[in-house]
Amino acid sequence: MADRMIRRALVSVSDKAGLVDLARVLAEFRVELISTGGTRKALESAGLQVRDISQETGFPEILDGRVKTLHPRVYAGILAVRDNKQHMATLQEHKIAPIDLIVCNLYPFEATVARPESTPEDIIENIDIGGPTMVRAAAKNFHDVAIVTDPSQYGALIEELRAHAGALSLATRERLAAAAFARTAAYDAAITSYFATRAGTGEFPEHLGLSFQRGMLLRYGENPHQKAAFYIEPGFPEASVATARALHGKELSFNNILDLDSALRLAGEFTEPAAIVVKHNNPCGAAIGATLEQAFRKAYEGDPLSAYGGVLGFNREVDEATALQVTEPNRFVECIIAPSFSSAAFQLLTTRPSWKKSVRLLEAGPFASAAGKTVSLDYRRVAGGLLVQTGDAPADDFAGMRVVTKRAPSAGELADLRFAWKVCKHVKSNAIVFAKGGMLVGVGAGQMSRVDSVHLASRKSAERSRGSVMASDAFFPFRDNIDEAAKAGVTAVVQPGGSMRDQDSIQACDEHDMAMVLTGIRHFRH
């Protein structure tokens, strides 16, 4: 029989949201409720009749609640196969009644770890033992038992109980079992990660357990023939695409999410008002200004042709003046991400332009300072394995810079070098950036030859390259990069250094009366 009547339910939850409503529906169908500790008290306070777990087991809760459901009478009632005559005879012999439904969500281990004020003792006490054991037992026996692990499942459960006169289908029980095993796997992964950190195995434990929750199914992946979904890292503490609130517009695509992440990361590099324009995961416009409106005007002017259909990122609330600039005629924007939007800006963005209905607006919340940013791990899938590295987090690479040319950069050049260096870090390698006056004027991205990236940045910047500075994400293998930059009118250069021919590039700068600084830090981005 595919459907199973629910006659007895064991309810033991940490998150009590929606619990009473579910229990009342179960009571409508004369389901016997068995419960523990705080859950039992919550149900009794709502006027529901509940059997305490100790009445079921004949044994009291002990050790401050550490032991309550861990008992053969509980697990026999869950694990007995209803169509197995020997199993049912054993239950009858020991006077054990079957349990048809388990409602159990686990101690909030992840949330406890995420709270700065949590002590190691708090964290240990929030490692659930009986809960995951009970969840796994019920999920294993899904042919006969239903397991509910999250309040978000209550609504559908109630609908089916009412539609099936108090029964649940096999398909539903199997779906709930799959969700239960996913939950216990994620729970164990979080605990494993915590102890790996405590044990001093560093960022790279011997066994890597990753736990991400599906946030949304996407229409397709990078291309229409590819299927895709967006998974969320639970408890991520900072402004991000994953944690941002969608305020308006069409659903996000796979490529939108990549570009929004790039725009947000680059915007977060700056303390000054900053505006970023991203296309195909590379910045084609970037600028800082005295106001956000000024920063956007400069960023858009960096490459208006490429900016059409781009993704925008801001590190300040988008105000009315900025929104007026964004919605000027002949401009088209796919998505905008920012800490917030003023009511006037939101009104303009959703009513003024021709693309008002489709533009995606994401509110990311306040940005963390560079010092407060989490250095999370980056993952890259390869066939048969996973590459893991620490993230290329914001840092003051200029703290240890060296001026290696006869001429030192002027104050204005140094400010532009700092700006160009931050932008260059977010450009696909080989990366060359031309900047002037706190704005990006030319980008050479993703070229196999560095000098080709110089040529591309020079062509993109045109006459604006006169008096600009140049940043390179890695060292120059030959002096031709400097010679070509000098032809374009570049006056100062920043690069990591480290080439066996560094002296050739330094000499070329001296010949062209250019300043060069070395940071000693490379920023490849593949």
Could you explain the architecture of this structure?
With 526 residues, the chain is an alpha/beta fold. Helices cover 37% and strands 19% of the residues. The strands form six sheets. The chain has a six-stranded mixed sheet, with helices on both faces. Strand 14 (333-338), helix 15 and strand 15 form a beta-alpha-beta unit. Helix 8 packs antiparallel against helix 10 (170-198), helix 12 (292-302) runs parallel beside helix 14 and helix 14 packs parallel to helix 15.
Number of strands: 23
The geometry reads as elongated
How do the strands of the widest beta sheet line up side by side?
10-15-14-13-11-12
Low-confidence stretches: none
Oligomeric assembly: single chain
Distance between the termini: 55 Å
Mean pLDDT, to the nearest integer, reads 91
How much of the sequence lies in strands comes to: 15-25%
Radius of gyration: 30 Å
Task: Characterize the biggest β-sheet.
Answer: 6 strands, mixed
The number of helical segments is 19
Secondary-structure-based class equals alpha/beta
Helix content: 25-40%
List keywords for this structure.
single chain, 526 residues, alpha/beta, 19 helices
Annotate the secondary structure layout.
Elements: E1 4-5, E2 8-11, H1 19-28, E3 32-35, H2 37-45, E4 51-52, H3 53-57, H4 72-79, H5 85-93, E5 101-103, H6 109-114, H7 120-125, H8 130-140, E6 146-148, H9 154-163, E7 167-168, H10 170-198, E8 213-218, E9 228-232, E10 245-248, H11 254-267, E11 274-279, E12 282-288, H12 292-302, H13 304-307, E13 310-314, H14 320-326, E14 333-338, H15 343-351, E15 360-363, E16 377-382, E17 385-390, E18 402-403, H16 411-424, E19 432-436, E20 439-444, H17 450-461, E21 469-472, H18 480-488, E22 492-495, H19 502-511, E23 515-518
Parallel strand pairs: 2-3, 2-5, 3-4, 5-6, 13-14, 14-15, 21-22, 22-23
Antiparallel strand pairs: 1-7, 8-9, 10-15, 11-12, 11-13, 16-17, 18-23, 19-20, 19-21
Helix pairs in contact: 1-9, 8-10, 12-14, 14-15, 17-18
